[in-house]
Amino acid sequence: MLVDKLSISKPQNMIRTITWIIILLTNANMLAFGQNTQQIELAQQYDDKGEIEKAKTIYDELAGKKKNIPVIHDRYFRLLINNGYLNEAKQYLSKTLRHYPDNILYQLDAGIVDLRQGDDVKAEEYFTRVFDQAKADIYKVRIVAGHLIKHELIERAVNMYLAGRQTSGDPSLYALELANVYRRLNKVDQMVLEYLAYANEDPSRISYVKNVLQNILTEDEDLDSMANLLLDRIQKDADNPLYSELLIWINLQQKNFYGAFMQARAVDRRQRTDGDEVMSVAQIALENQDYENALKMYDHVIERYPRTSNYVSARRYKIKAREELVKNQFPVQQEEIVKLIQDYQNFIDESKGSPIGPSAATLEAMRSQALLYAFYMDEKNKAITILQQVAGSPKASREIKAQSKLDMGDIYILMNEPWESTLLYAQVEKAHKEEPVGYEAKLRNAKLSYYKGDFQLAQDHLDVLKEATTREIANDAMSLSLLIQNNTVLDTSGAAMQAYADVELMLFQNKQESALQKLDSMLADYKGHPLEDEVYWLMAKVQMQLGNFEQSLDKLDKINQSYNYDILGDDALFMTGRIYEEQLKDTEKAMELYTQFLREYPGSIYVADVRKRFRNLRGDFNIN
After folding, report:
1. What does the CA dihedral 608, 612, 617, 621 come to, rounded to 10 degrees?
2. Most buried among 15, 22, 425, 492, by the most CB within 10 A?
3. First to last CA, the chain
4. Distances in Å between the alpha carbon of 66 and those of 63, 73, 75, 94, 110?
5. Do 535 and 522 contact (CB within 8 A), yes or no?
6. Extents of the domains making up the chain
7. Nearest-angstrom CA–CA distance, 612 and 222
8. Longest CA pairwise span in the chain (Å)
9. C-alpha dihedral (31, 33, 36, 42), degrees to nearest 10
10. Across the chain, how many H-helices and E-strands are there?
């Protein structure tokens, strides 16, 4: 039995011994690994703090062991070449490549060292070898190019991508990567071509490309160059919708709406879209106050697509464009308003006689007609009657009903019945919470409180509206809020602010002469008040509306000379240029003022419009 026990215990003892040996070795390895990790972290800390010699001493020791090289290589190599240790870097790379002869990144680094030492021939041998190894592998191409970019060898990264593309036979491969590299090299044309290739590969990428180019192509020359590239592509591949879409987009960026119209017209013809593209461009032109070109586009749709759904919309918007044109030619001619009212009536009568009856376009026309009656013909009761018909129509959408109520609220302000206005605005706000029209109702209630001198209540409304989802409403709320805050902080009585609010109410009610008298009194009563530039600004606007352009320019000059640093500085100079351009037809003076504007207010919201106006006056957009 003893023998059996001994024979059994020997193997068990051996197993225990082996286990202990393994544990001891493992602990030793872990200890060594832990020490290595501490050394690596310490070297990195020294490197980060700029204590190069201390970091290098540790890295030199770590580099003596093969297993450490993949962990320390990037930092160690960068430290050597960036601090003049090129010979040591060369020796280190020579040893490293003996350990890892197939590692293409180490081969690239060897080439980088040779470049730094001026041995271009030797460097080229390394780069050529790496390119040959990588060009057939998409993953390796991207790794190599990225490594070259990291070391600022941008042109060589381009060559890597192009070699990979040529090997693959795919002309759009690496398009996005090349576009980004060309962007770094400021090679705009090549960059654009790569973005075109990227979008051509998948049309859903067009929005991304537009967003990127909008941030990059900030100079007119760059947009012109891209337009020429696109025109060349269209001539070669007229059926590709991508090029036309981008060309339209470029013209819209430059606010060259006639140029966009030319391209949109061609797209509609090629794709047989019944004027959809032209209608889209016309709407943008209308919103940007280019009424004359908007009119040309609506005329085109009316003439060319008479039996389509766009025909009715084009007729309606043509009258709207004419209305805006009439209202922005000062002084406004009463006979032109009468013609507009009749045009709307003709449109309304025709649509009422159609088999389907009044449409949304008809109801919108009725709204526009009502507002002309109220604000220009002093027929407020007639306007209210029309708006009640719109709001009560069974075909009226929630939006149109709400807008009609807001319109009626505005008209009751004209009639000095603010309580009726407040009631209507509150109804709309309650029924359309968290909707743009609901925010609009709240903004109008805030303005009404402002007119009445209840500035705190107005501020309460405006504080909410600053967070509105509609940018235009949020901006309007912010502007009125700042006006109140800036001009009631020092003047706690609020007397000047109340006088100014009274003037704004007069102007809303079309009482221009009374408003001018009140503004003159304010200049005398509140001399030196922070509102002084605002007073000159309102006087300039009223004089322009009355057709007194010289008087308007005189008030604007007060701002341009004494308040050009303040919030209205860019507004005043822009308006001065517009008067010379649009009203006095003095092209040279307008161009001089626009040049001054671009120099003094490069960050203004008007910059794009000013550039477009300047280029238009210079003749850049004279397209036959």
Report:
1. 170
2. 425
3. 117
4. 7, 11, 16, 13, 17
5. yes
6. 502-624
7. 15
8. 130
9. -80
10. 32, 0
Task: Reply yes or no on domain 502-624 having CATH 1.25.40.10.
Answer: yes
- Round the CA-based radius of gyration of the chain to a whole number and report it: 36
Count Cβ atoms below 10 Å from residue 296 Cβ, excluding itself: 18
- Cα separation, 158 vs 143, in Å, equals 13
Place of tokens 């030319």: 262
Q: What is the C-alpha to C-alpha distance for residues 419 and 230, in angstroms, rounded to an integer?
A: 58
Task: Tell me the backbone φ, ψ of residue 332, rounded to 5 degrees.
Answer: -65, 130
Tell which residue, 586, 517, 555, 584, has the closest CA to residue 330.
584
Alpha helices by DSSP H, 452-586: 455-465, 471-486, 495-508, 512-525, 532-545, 549-562, 569-578
Q: In this structure, which amino acid lies at residue 482? A: L
DSSP tag of 605: T
The answer to whether 274 and 309 have CB atoms below 8 angstroms apart is yes
Cβ pair 584, 550 in contact under 8 A: no
Dihedral sign of CA atoms 270, 275, 281, 282 in order: positive
Token output for 31 = 């200890």
CA-to-CA dists, residue 231 to 144, 251, 266, angstroms:
35, 12, 13
The two three-digit tokens of residue 52, written as one number: 């190069």
Question: Which residue matches tokens 């206005």?
Answer: 421
pTM beyond cutoff 0.70: yes
Place of tokens 């967003």: 211
pLDDT in tens, 275-329: 999 999 999 999 999 999 999 999 999 999 999 989 999 999 999 999 999 999 9
Q: What sign results for the dihedral spanned by CA atoms 489, 493, 499, 504? A: positive
For residue 284, count other CB atoms closer than 10 A to its CB.
16
Residue 127 contacts residue 108 (beta carbons within 8 Å): yes
- At 12, the pLDDT band (50, 70, 90 cuts) reads low
- Of 8-12, 460-464, 601-605, the least confident: 8-12
DSSP 276-306: HHHHHHHHHHHHTT-HHHHHHHHHHHHHH-T
| 40: its two tokens | 């690596």
* Three state DSSP letters for 405-455: HHHHHHHHHHCCCHHHHHHHHHHHHHHCCCCHHHHHHHHHHHHHHHHCCCH
Judged on CB neighbours under 10 Å (0-12, 13-18, 19+), 159 is middle
What does the pLDDT look like over 397-427, one tens digit per residue? 999 999 999 999 999 999 999 999 999 999 9
Residues whose CB is less than 8 angstroms from the CB of residue 415 and which lie 6 or more positions away in sequence, other chains included: 380
Output DSSP code: residue 136: T
- Tokens describing residue 308: 């389509």
Q: What angle do CA 303, 309, 314 make, to 5 degrees?
A: 50
State the average pLDDT over residues 201-205.
92
Amino acid at 187: K
- Cis previous bond, 355, omega within 30: no
Going by pLDDT thresholds of 50, 70 and 90, the confidence category of residue 252 is: very high
Distance CA 410, CA 478 (A): 21
Q: Identity (one letter) of the amino acid at 219? A: E
